[in-house]
Amino acid sequence: MTNPTTITTPDGLPFVDIIRDFDAPRELVFRAYVDPDLVRQWQGPRRYVTAIGEWDARTGGAWSYVSTDPDDGAEYGFRGVFHAVDEPTSITQTFEYAGVPGHVNLDRVVFEDLGDGRTRVTSRTAFQSLEDRDGMVASGMSYGVTEGNERLDELLASLA
Description:
The protein is of the alpha+beta class. The chain has one domain: Alpha-D-Glucose-1,6-Bisphosphate, Chain A, domain 4. It is built from four helices and eight strands, in the order E-E-H-H-E-E-E-E-E-E-H-H. The chain has helices spanning 26-34, 36-42, 130-138, 141-159, and strands at residues 5-8, 15-22, 49-55, 62-68, 75-86, 90-97, 105-115, 118-126. Helix 1 packs across helix 2 (36-42). The longest helix has 19 residues, at 141-159. The chain starts with a strand and ends with a helix.
């Protein structure tokens, strides 16, 4: 059984907070976030195929990927900039969905060593407005995040 993903949306604030524990060491979990070959294996819903366009996981680097639904061929593009990559403790980056250009979010992901080879990943996404946040939540974000974390669990187990 995997650890639960907790997603909260504070009332009146344009944030989404996500907490997830992983049964893997912090360095390995961090690597799964910055290595493009690993990212494409776990990012997003299981049925989608993710192709990395650009992935320069360093402070000032850029990233992009496209997730494709093989059932209907629909493509979902995403891009951003890594503002701070502090191995193995945190990543701060922007996030923009190509389907809603100009609505750029700021994400901060923190990797906490829980001991005994376990890691807590805590992220906060700051949206430009409550409307942007609520639109993202309504789009099915929680499904993609939760299933992506389950896929990350599987990937981490295979790398251990």
